Structure formats: structure tokens, C-alpha cells
């Protein structure tokens, strides 16, 4: 009996580890805008559990230079700034980087998802552009996943398509 119970516990733990070791990626499309004065957008991507306050930062793209002048505009990513940004010392190794040119940009998220507990989460992607607009997209999902899922949202102005791919 003890041997069967131990085997069941080990199989259950293996199933949980497999589910939580899912492969995840995020694709963010930055549209090419035909405007007189174009500036690359600042973009932040983060996860939050439903009803929680913990933030898992995934990406932050902003103007990085030796004088660190680009940091003063991070507060224009209003939702991200209120939830996480104002408490961070920039740059943060692992998720900050320079602004990106128009086009599709893919981020592997395996490590960021490995520490998530089971539950309901929302992925947020926020963009803000100088002499432009601001946009926030949300993708709710359940974790861990039991089968492959592709979640999509589409922006109206500053963001194109945002795609979250999850696979067990």
C-alpha cells in the first residue's frame, strides 16, 4: 500500500512539474506608422495573477543611453509604472532592453513561467510613444496549461497583434 501511495505521489509530482515546465512565447508586433515625426514606442510586458498584486516583468523596451535620459519617460507606461516600474532600479538585467523597430518581435518566456503557481493570470502589454499615443492590451489565461493554446489581442494604434503561445 505504501509503495502504491508513494508511486502515485511521484507520478502526481511529475505531472505538475511537466505542466509547469510549459513552453511559452510572446510575439509583439510594432506597426510601421506613417506619421511626420516617428519615435519608437516604449513597451512593457508583465504578468499578474487574478486578484493579486505580484508582478512578473517579462520585457521593458525603452531608450537606453549613457546619460540614462530615456528613463524619465518610463512613467508614460502608466499601468506598468504604477504596478512595478516606480519601485525598480533601471536597467534591470534580464528583461530591459532598447526600443525595437517596427515589425514582429518574439520573446521566449519559459523561465518566467516556471515559477508560476496554478491559477488565473493576465498578460499585459503596454505601449507609449512620444508624439503618439498609448495603448494597453490584456490576455487572460489559466495556468498551468494542459494543451497548446494561442491567445491573441490586436491593438488599434501603437500595437499590432500580440500573441501568447503556451504549450505543455
Report on the architecture of this protein.
- The protein is of the alpha+beta class.
- The chain has one domain: Sandwich (Immunoglobulin-like).
- The protein is 18% helix and 39% strand.
- The protein has three helices and nine strands; from the N terminus they run H-E-E-E-H-E-E-H-E-E-E-E.
- Strands 4-3-2-6-7 form a five-stranded mixed β-sheet. Strands 5-1-9-8 form a four-stranded antiparallel β-sheet.
- The model is unreliable at 1-20 (pLDDT under 50).
Keywords:
168 residues; Immunoglobulin-like; five-stranded mixed beta sheet; four-stranded antiparallel beta sheet; 3 helices; 9 strands
Q: How are the secondary structure elements laid out?
A:
Layout lengths: L1 H19 L2 E8 L11 E8 L6 E7 L15 H6 L12 E3 L4 E6 L1 H5 L4 E10 L5 E10 L5 E6 L6 E7 L1
Parallel strand pairs: 3-4
Antiparallel strand pairs: 1-5, 1-9, 2-3, 2-6, 6-7, 8-9
Based on CA atoms alone, the radius of gyration comes out at 18 Å
The CATH first-level class comes to: Mainly Beta
Mean pLDDT: 86
Instruction: Report, as a whole number of angstroms, the end-to-end distance.
Output: 31 Å
Helix proportion range:
10-25%
Could you name the ranges where pLDDT drops below 50 across 5 or more consecutive residues? 1-20
Order of helices and strands: HEEEHEEHEEEE
Helix count, DSSP H or I runs of 4 or more residues: 3
Largest sheet entry: 5 strands, mixed
In total, the number of strands is 9
